Amino acid sequence: MRARPDPRRLSTLVLVVLLLVAAVQPALAKSREKILTETLRTYAATIRWGSIEQAESFVDPAYRAEHPLTQLELDRYKQVRFTNYNDTAPVPVNDNEVRQTVEIGIVNIHTQEARSIIDRQVWKYDKKAKVWLLSSGLPDITRHD
Question: Across the chain, which distance is largest between two alpha carbons, in Å?
Answer without folding.
Answer: 90
